[in-house]
Amino acid sequence: MDQRVVRIACFGDSLTEGYGLTRDEALPSVLERRLSERGVPAQCLNFGISGETFEDGLARVDRVINASPDAVILEFGANDCFTGDPVPAIRDNASAVIEHLLAHGLPVLLVGITAHPEIGAGHEDEFNALFGELANRYGLSLFPDILAPYFADPSLTLLDGLHPNAGGVEAMAEALLPQVGELIETARKRD
To answer: pTM for this one?
Structure first.
């Protein structure tokens, strides 16, 4: 079995960064620990910045590339949705980020999110279709909704009711692990 350490860039917003949590409680650290517990050597790099959108991610995608990761977990969309950005603009920015990562030969796990119900049915339906469309267009593995593992359980959120607490991050990591494992295998096959 290949025991080379795989470097995964966790690239996203506050849900990646670990808003309101310690660095060790943030999603990249939790994923790295859980992989290690399963005997999978990985280094999960935290490229999460609270409040960012796909457009912000596009502005700093080169920093991710320059870190020389073997693969990328791409998690944006919450702030794009909450600010009500037009879906075609979100799609264009997301596509540009994905195309940049793929042009550098990086396998990508796309992490989606569902629209907050307050946004309105028209925008909600269009937004909710976005991540599936992007995954199909670029042949990416898709984790459909990063909120699903914790959002409905108040005991797993911070006081704001939106962001996961440490338990919520553990739930997110557990749900992501199977696809992260597949991402690691894809990265190893590239060598």
So the answer is: 0.95
Which of 12-16, 160-164, 166-170 has the weakest average pLDDT?
160-164
> What is the β-pairing status of strands 42-48 and 71-75?
unpaired
* Residue located via tokens 């119900």: 117
DSSP string, the chain: ---PPEEEEEEESHHHHTTTS-GGGSHHHHHHHHHHHTT--EEEEEEE-TT--HHHHHHHHHHHHHT--SEEEEE--HHHHHTT--HHHHHHHHHHHHHHHHHTT--EEEE--PPPGGG-HHHHHHHHHHHHHHHHHHT-EEE--TTTTTTT-GGGB-TTSSSB-HHHHHHHHHHHHHHHHHHHHHHHHH-
Delineate the domains of the chain, giving CATH numbers in brackets.
6-190 (3.40.50.1110)
Instruction: Give the number of other Cβ atoms within 10 Å of residue 121's Cβ.
Output: 9
Tens-digit pLDDT profile for residues 10-38: 999 999 999 999 999 999 999 999 999 99
